[in-house]
Amino acid sequence: MNVINKKNIFRFSCLGFIIFLAVLLVRAYFVPHMTQKRLTANQAAFKKLGMYDTPRLVENLRQAIRIQTVSGGKLLEDPRTFAKSIQTFRRFLRKTYPVFFNSLEEIKLDSPSYLLKWPGQDSSLGAVGFMAHMDVVPVEPGTKGDWAMPPFSGELKDGAIWGRGALDDKSSLIAMIEATEALLQKGFTPPRDIYFIFGHDEEVGGNKGAKIAAQWFKEKGLGLDYILDEGSGIIKGDLLGTSRDVALISVAEKGVISLKLEVLSEGGHASMPPLKTPISVLASALLKLQQKPFPARFTDIHTDILQTLALGKPLLERVFLSNLWLFRSIVVGQMLARPPTAAQLRTTVAPTILKAGSKENVLPQSSSAVLNVRIHPNETVESVIDEIRKKIGDDQVTISKYSTGFDPPKKSAKNTPAFQRIQTHLQTVTGGVLVSPSITIASTDSKHFNHIAKNIYRILPMTLGKADVKTIHGTGEKISVKELKRMVRFYQLLLQQPE
Ligand SMILES: [Zn+2]
Fold first, then answer.
1. Cβ(403)–Cβ(287) under 8 Å?
2. Domain spanning 252-401, CATH class
3. Residue 109 above 60 pLDDT?
4. pLDDT tier at 13 (50, 70, 90 boundaries)?
5. Would you say 9 and 303 are in contact if contact means Cβ atoms under 8 Å apart?
6. How many angstroms does the Cα of residue 392 sit away from the middle of ligand 1?
7. What are phi and psi of 403, to 5 degrees?
8. Tell me, which fold does domain 45-240+441-496 have in CATH?
9. Among this protein's residues, is 382 annotated catalytic?
């Protein structure tokens, strides 16, 4: 009997196709759920929290915002004003939180940043670092009038506290101290040593703050089990294009460097231009960089994020995101089409400063451009410089470092008790948010602790939607009292049960 006839081939093909579809659908159902290790919410610890006083909490953040600790921008040109503002802020903290400052041990640094130790019950257990920063970015000149409330007013309106630093990062700093004071007042001692590291110059790189604090650890030969710092948040579905909010705990961070491209020549009269001038050579180099972007590098962190997002997506998208073994190139293509998601996948190069020429009839003797480069966790400062040199492929263009470069910090593990504990506490304070590891595309102070902390987890326990994200370093920054209270609760839980 000949089974290989046309009819049978058709039947087998149909059967194969049905099995294939079934695999896709079964994966679409099960794979995203597997990303969410459902831990029991920690209700017992939740009930035992020390009480904090909400009006006081709100008032303290309002006051913190009013102190203009602006680093960078015009004010940095007057370092004395900045130094004074940080001293005022330090005095404000001390006066406002006597219990915190009298109970913890302050470690004197050659820096206005704070390093404080809260001795735990068992110093042999790995210590944990909580980081936040005191400084804020400037308000873009000419945009003050666009704010619904003045940017340094700390105004309380419609259930929100307004002003620069409300989200980034004074809310976190105040919430950490409030959480600690409430626990101290209950006579609580943490199970392990806790260090608080409050930088004063995070927004300009942290070289005189967090870096000095990290050096202290190095000199003492002390390490940290993990660090909790800013760098991500509980991201609302409207920003992610999903029906569910996702808490993104960053386990990786991009590196950063600014590079200067420079072209020199003899100059001359503009009436007899040579074929190539410093401007045309530089323009061609910049164009090449735009046309030859860095390759997309898909990592297991991307798999985790996409499979988690799948839980809040319609069926078709869910099928795609749960079957990356088959659809990865399509998904990557879509991610590359949008700058925020493209930045998650590749090293980005942004020209930010351009200089050449001073008179309309004189050929400039030099031209230069500054590139701000954000380095994918799988690359390094040196590897991207080499790559940029190759992409430009022109010896007339010299490349030099314009800023201190930071390699991407090592990736932190997601299968640690600490990560899972942070996840559980986030789920407790939100009533069960989805959680995924992620990558911070900006730079944080925690990078200075790359070799001090075994793991670094970056998240602010606050909900951020589309509208909120625009206000970070932008116009109209504010935090709702509800979110601020949630932050205090989260920190209280984590301080009580760091692992
Ligand atoms: Zn920040």
1. no
2. alpha beta
3. yes
4. confident
5. no
6. 34
7. -140, 170
8. Aminopeptidase (3.40.630)
9. no
Equal CATH topology for 45-240+441-496 and 252-401: no
**What distance in Å separates the CA atoms of residue 456 and residue 413, rounded to the nearest whole number?**
9
Percentage of the chain modeled with pLDDT above 90: 83
Instruction: Give the C-alpha separation, 187 to 202, whole Å.
Output: 32
Distance 108 CA to ligand 1 centre (A): 23
Ligand 1 center to 135 CA (angstroms): 8
Tell me the domain boundaries of the chain. 45-240+441-496, 252-401
Active-site hit among 169, 201, 202, 203: 202
Q: What pLDDT score does 3 carry?
A: 59
Q: What is the pLDDT of residues 182-210, one digit of tens each?
A: 999 999 999 999 999 999 999 999 999 99
**Ligand 1: distance of its center to the CA of 169 in Å?**
5
The CA-atom distances, in angstroms, between 301 and each of 71, 139, 249, 314 are 32, 34, 11, 22
Asked if pLDDT for residue 251 goes beyond 70, the answer is yes
Q: Using a cut of 0.85, tell me whether the model's pTM lies above it.
A: yes
Query: Ligand 1 centre and the CA of 444: distance in Å?
Result: 7
Say what the pLDDT of residue 259 is: 98
Per-residue confidence (pLDDT) for residue 32, from 0 to 100? 75
Q: Is 238 a catalytic residue?
A: no
How many angstroms is it from 472 CA to the middle of ligand 1?
A: 9
434 touches 34 (CB < 8 A) = no
